[in-house]
Amino acid sequence: MATDPSARASETDLIREAQQGSRTAFDTLVRQYDQAVLRLALHLTGSEQDAEDIHQEAFLKAYRYLGNFRFECSFYTWIYRIVTNLCLDLLRRRKSRREDQAVMLDSSGEEIDLLTNVSDQRASANPDRELNRKFLGERIREALDKLTPRERMVFELKHYQGLKLRTIGEMLNTTEETAKNTLFRATRKLRANLAELR
Amino acid sequence: MGNTMKCEVAQEIIALAVYGELPDEQGPQLERHLTECELCRRELEAVQALSKAMSLLPVEDPSANLVARSRLRLEEALDAIPHGSWLLRSWQRFARGVWRLRSAPVAVSGVLVIGLTAGGYSGYRAGEHAHDASRTTLGPVATQSDDPLTDVASVSSIVQEPNTENVEVVYNRLQPETIRGSLDDPQIRQLLLVGARNRINSGVRDDSLGLLAHECRAGHQCDDGPIRDALMVALRYDKSVDVRLKALEGLQPYVADDVRVRDAVLEALMRDTDPRVRTQSIGLLEPVQADSSVREVLHTVAIRDDNAEIRTASRQVLDQIPQVQ
Fold first, then answer.
1. Which of A32, A147, B22, B319 suits B125 as a labelling partner, its CA being 20 to 30 A distant?
2. Which of B14, B54, B63 to mutate to test the interface with A (most CBs of A within 10 A)?
3. Which of A117, A160, A165 is opposite residue B63, by nearest beta carbon?
4. Residue B56 and residue B59: Cα distance in Å, rounded?
5. Higher model confidence: residue A122 or residue A9?
6. How would residue A78 be classed by pLDDT, with cut points 50, 70 and 90?
């Protein structure tokens, strides 16, 4: 993320070049953000496939609408606006799918996916610890699933990605105050949901 | 309004404090309130406990393979767009109805249908086909000079004129071109990357990856870029053993410095079906044998691999590592 003046200036040049059609400039821009985008999408969705799809759609949209970027905010915020919108769409689709069916469509196979990948690669020596982690991870995802898409998004950005409420507000096209209240609702719900697991 | 903070206020801002969002001036007041108020202290503990619990679902870095294949997929999609700004301009013209195709009405409606599904990726593809449609001369197809139907890439639509034997076909042509240059030339590299993705012609894919791997091995211009990604994807997904072996060779210089490459090689060691790939992976991992995740994998392989030689090789590497207590 370009925050110091000289880095920001060169990012501005890069953006302008990309806006004028330079594919190389666009590729360089993408590389500055794509891992962070994948990280966010992966943690939020719990699925590598969904993360890949969001990555694809987000950067294609960025390419297509790059002309509309007028430097009114940072490029980082602009990209994340696109990403968070896509994430919200996905969360809404998942939620409505679940409400239509009696059985949870989001199979636990998919939710464990993230953790299984990690444990496979790390050939853990402690099977009990692994099992515990998977169990807890599932529980936490279940609690998160009970939040509304917006609440979940705000919580993800605040707690897991460490962004400031003000930035979150900008990304979700709302005020810092609203983001704050959404965070409160999210934490209250989560406490209630997790409490019933004890 | 005195200096003492009330419980209602405290309860609200405690979450802010836990998340580092408390305005500085409220800090001391909250602290003072907490020393006096048991209820709010418990609230603070509860929020802190929530925060800890939620952190039990840690944010993982995307795996090397996920990053590589996401990047490649994006590159392919962007490559499918001929010229970004050209497309946007012609798309806008089309949308404004200014664009007149020199074609029969039937073909126009065919293209219109495609056009109306615009939006996102499908829009780009549609635009590409629409552009090519304008190149075909329709109506009575005068056999264009002595130009037989060569270099046909694909057919976009076939429409039969009602009650006749006449058919109208919209197709796209490839324009083959040749370029000569050095392997250091960025254009040549760009083409090699495209060649590396050729799903139909494995000879081309093989050659492209071989050359790219060779470049990486020689240390030319392979820093964290599409070439390294292409090699990692080839290592993971290519059906040809030779290609995977070449990819390994190309990645060798980076195992020590790049965690993603190291992880990709570890995965090859654990999952690749061919023993030659697994054996070569062990060799590549020797410079980083002291790494704990490498050790763990070598351990597993030393016990579980089907191939006795590989089990032995893993054990040998493990034995070289001084026991760290």
1. A32
2. B54
3. A117
4. 9
5. A9
6. very high
Summarised one tens digit per residue, pLDDT across range B15-45 is 899 999 998 888 898 999 999 999 999 989 9
pLDDT higher than 60, residue A102? no
Provide CB contacts within 8 A for B109, sequence distance 6+.
none
CATH architecture of A1-102: Orthogonal Bundle (1.10)
Which amino acid does the sequence have at A43? H
Two tokens at B167?
């058919």
Q: Which of residues 35-74 of B touch A (CB under 8 A)?
A: 46-47, 50-51, 53-57, 59-63, 66-67, 69-71, 73-74
Complex ipTM value: 0.80
Measure the CA–CA gap between B71 and B58, rounded to whole angstroms. Answer: 24
Q: Does B6 touch chain A (CB under 8 A)?
A: no
pLDDT tens profile A143-173: 999 999 999 999 999 999 999 999 999 999 9
For B167, phi and psi rounded to 5 degrees?
-130, 145
Task: Give chain B positions within 8 Å (CB) of A114.
Answer: 60
Q: Which of B53, B73, B270 sits opposite A52 (nearest CB)?
A: B73
Cβ distance of B296 and A194 shorter than 8 Å: no
* Termini Cα distance of chain B: 61
Instruction: Determine the pLDDT at residue A149.
Output: 93
pLDDT at A132: 63
Contact A79, A66 (CB under 8 A): no
Interface test with B, best of A28, A48, A146 (most B CBs within 10 A): A48
Question: Can you tell me whether residue B42 is helix, strand or coil?
Answer: helix
What confidence score (pLDDT) does residue B137 get?
37
Helical spans, DSSP H, in chain A = 5-19, 23-45, 48-65, 75-100, 108-121, 127-145, 149-155, 165-171, 176-195
Partner-chain residue, chosen from B59, B84, B297, that has the shortest CB–CB distance to A123:
B297
Q: Which residue among A120, A121, A183 sits closest to B15, beta carbon to beta carbon?
A: A183
> Is the separation of the CB atoms in A54 and A37 below 8 Å?
yes
Please state which of the ranges B103-112, B222-231, B291-300 shows the lowest mean pLDDT. B103-112
pLDDT at A21 > cutoff 80: yes
Which of A97-111, A121-135, B191-205, B234-248 has the highest average model confidence (pLDDT)?
A: B234-248
Domain boundaries, chain B: 7-54, 76-140+147-173, 183-254, 255-325
* Nearest chain A residue (CA) to B16: A180
**CA–CA dist A34, B74 (Å, integer):** 11
Reference A161, options A56, A84, A47; nearest CA is A84
What's the pLDDT at A127? 60
